[in-house]
Design goal:
The complex is a heterodimer of chains A (about 400) and B (about 180). By secondary structure, chain A is α/β, with parallel strands linked by helices. Chain A contains 21 helices and 8 strands. Chain A has helices at about 20-25, 25-30, 35-50, 65-70, 75-90, 95-100, 105-110, 115-120, 125-135, 150-155, 170-175, 180-190, 205-210, 215-235, 245-255, 270-280, 305-310, 310-320, 345-365, 375-385, 390-400, and strands spanning about 165-170, 195-200, 240, 270, 295-300, 325, 370, 390. In chain A, α20 links the parallel β7 and β8 (about 390). In chain A, α11 (about 170-175) packs across α12 (about 180-190), α12 packs across α21 (about 390-400) and α16 packs across α18. Chain A is globular, with a radius of gyration of 21 Å. Chain B has about 180 residues and is an alpha/beta fold. In chain B, about 20% of the residues lie in helices and about 35% in strands. In chain B, the strands form 3 sheets. In chain B, strands 1, 2, 3, 4, 5, 6, 11 and 12 form an 8-stranded mixed β-sheet that branches. In chain B, strands 7-8 form a two-stranded antiparallel ribbon. A two-stranded antiparallel ribbon of chain B has the order 9-10. Classes of the chains: A alpha/beta (about 400), B alpha/beta (about 180). At the A-B interface, α4, α16, α17 and α18 of A face α2 and β3 of B.
Chain lengths: ~400, ~180
């Protein structure tokens, strides 16, 4: 009998139904992008014959994975495109792409002089310089760097004396930009009777390197993270993250794009809201909430959250908080796609893709937007002018800790 | 995760039922994977307050006798969806609601009883443009619309849409199930 499903990404299962093209956010905004079907399974047949068929417009793929969520045949359309980019793509702007991809290096340097860096990247001359020299769009507001790294603010001494622990993968955003989210998570976990451990060694999850074409260096970081995660899981701890993209990258992209086997720890690696929801729903922990807490919240589902299928955990968690009125509108892409929306050749597409979402969120008239992705937060805060918080921070605010 | 009704399959039948039930105040979750060409009902369903698990798929159910207690999905891993009632609306062959092999035709999630011609020769009509018998195969249901599993009707698993045997009116079959669940 004929051998079926020869490839790991199921590209030969594509029925050419084009449902992926219909759901692709880039397709609706950019006539130069060939769309997921043509860029993915169709193009793959040609690239297998000759890499010269690699189409440079594949750089427009947001890696949002909406094509994969929609595919009725299980074709890993997004993975096919990402693999092709890693194999055949070239950086269009090597210095900029290196800078955007090396979040650990840039974050470490920037936090040292955070106040100066934060002020500088907001001035018109610096923005103009970055636009023309580095190809970072001058209209983009840069996320602020923290004055102190999360790892320096986290006090391991304060975590002694618990009899149960979870491990926390804080990620670059919490470490360099917004340590408060990490501190909020520690506060919540402690309030539920668990202590927090950091991983023995943590690197950037690697998503920025993968999307900017630095596969080998991403794999190097991934190996370090995987080994630390294994050590935490070996002593019976789950590993939590507050970023949907970090956790998605480590659970799925390590395996599909970097060729690593994560199956032994995949089930123990999850978004903090998933763990919190399960603990609270099963009654294993019974948090006490403030009685005077009232907020109208609209939840935005990040694309990678949509792929994980876990937004029900974050919305379920928010619904458990008394005093919260939650709106969950029809979900769509915000357009930033990590470092993509920072690049000057992508900026207009990124805003065009997100415009529909900005209107929806604004029309909800909520007090705050909740979302599990830091780059969605940057985009929505900048372009819709709304306050955005991680559900964990909202939970931390609503808990009665006293 | 607890709901009043969990809908397995988010096509036209599942979402029609979902919209109808949500508007009547019944709390629904719909697990929708596959060709979701029904954009309008999908938006209506979410706007009516339905929980949509898109790109997810039910992998197994847990039963107590003939009563389905909970279902597990690929994405939610060890967090099950629990409900008083369930609707299966996963369609026929193309949407993988029914599978076939050389030995027979089966329903892959719960192994519901399927009505089909035992003689494989009779599955297809040699007249390509004629009515194809395999298009009328589908799950066996009782007078209330509940599926049979291993010869016994289930207490709370209803079928709607193309997965049903015979000539099916998708929307009508969904609304009939809703009447029982409202």
């Amino acid at each position: 009998m004929q051998e079926i499903e020869i490839s790991a990404n199921n590209f030969e299962r594509c029925l050419k139904c084009d449902i992926c093209t219909r759901v692709c956010p880039m397709m609706a905004a950019n006539p130069y992008y060939p769309g997921p079907k043509q860029a993915g399974p169709d193009g793959e047949r040609y690239r297998l014959k000759d890499p010269a068929f690699y189409d440079l417009t594949l750089k427009f793929c947001l890696n949002c994975k909406r094509c994969e969520v929609a595919c009725p045949s299980g074709v890993k359309v997004g993975d096919i495109i990402q693999m092709a980019r890693l194999k055949y793509g070239r950086q269009s702007h090597p210095v900029r792409d290196f800078t955007l991809a090396n979040t650990d290096l840039v974050g470490t340097l920037a936090t040292v002089a955070a106040p100066a860096v934060n002020a500088m990247v907001r001035t018109a001359p610096v923005k103009a310089l970055m636009h023309s020299l580095f190809g970072v769009d001058s209209r983009r507001t840069f996320p602020e760097y923290g004055r102190k790294k999360f790892v320096d603010m986290f006090d391991p001494e304060s975590q002694k004396g618990f009899d149960r622990y979870v491990s926390y993968f804080h990620g670059c955003y919490v470490n360099y930009n917004f340590p408060r989210l990490g501190l909020d998570l520690v506060k919540v976990i402690n309030a539920l009777g668990y202590g927090v451990h950091l991983l023995e060694k943590e690197k950037c999850c690697g998503v920025a390197k993968i999307s900017n074409g630095f596969g080998a260096s991403a794999r190097h970081q991934a190996e370090i993270n995987a080994s630390s995660i294994r050590k935490a899981v070996a002593v019976g701890e789950v590993v939590l993250s507050t970023s949907s993209t970090c956790v998605f990258t480590m659970r799925d992209e390590y395996e599909h794009l970097l060729g690593m086997d994560m199956s032994d720890v995949r089930g123990s690696l999850m978004l903090a809201t998933k763990w919190l929801y399960s603990m609270m729903e099963s009654g294993k922990v019974r948090p006490v909430f403030r009685k005077d807490y009232h907020r109208k919240v609209v939840y935005h589902t990040p694309c990678h959250m949509n792929k994980l299928g876990w937004s029900v955990f974050s919305t379920g968690l928010l619904r458990m908080i008394p005093g919260i009125e939650l709106i969950v509108p029809d979900q769509r892409c915000c357009g930033i796609a990590g470092t993509f929306g920072f690049k000057k050749e992508n900026y207009d597409y990124s805003q065009k893709i997100g415009s529909g979402l900005f209107d929806i969120l604004k029309s909800c008239n909520a007090d705050v937007v909740a979302t599990d992705c830091e780059t969605c937060k940057w985009q929505i805060e900048m372009s819709a002018g709304l306050e955005v918080m991680n559900p964990v921070s909202i939970l931390a605010e609503a808990l009665d800790i006293s | 995760m607890k709901f009043d009704v969990v809908i397995i399959g988010g096509g036209l039948a599942g979402l029609t039922a979902g919209v109808e039930l949500c508007r009547a105040g019944v709390g629904c979750a719909a697990v929708a994977e596959g060709l979701s060409i029904h954009n309008a009902p999908m938006k209506e369903y979410v706007d009516a307050g339905g929980v949509l698990l898109s790109g997810d798929s039910v992998v197994r159910g847990e039963w107590e006798g003939n009563r389905l207690l909970r279902v597990f999905t690929r994405n939610l891993e060890n967090t099950p969806l629990e409900a008083g009632n369930f609707i299966i609306s996963t369609g026929k062959f193309f949407s993988l609601g029914l599978r076939s092999d050389m030995n027979g035709i089966y329903e892959p999630v719960f192994d519901c009883d399927v009505l089909y011609d035992a003689d494989r020769e009779n599955w297809v009509n040699p007249d390509f443009w004629g009515v194809q018998p395999f298009e009328t195969f589908g799950v066996r249901t009782d007078a209330e619309g509940r599926v049979y599993v291993k010869g016994v009707p289930s207490v709370n698993l209803y079928a709607a849409g193309e997965i049903l045997a015979g000539k099916v009116d998708i929307v009508k079959s969904a609304l009939e199930v809703c009447r029982k669940l409202k």
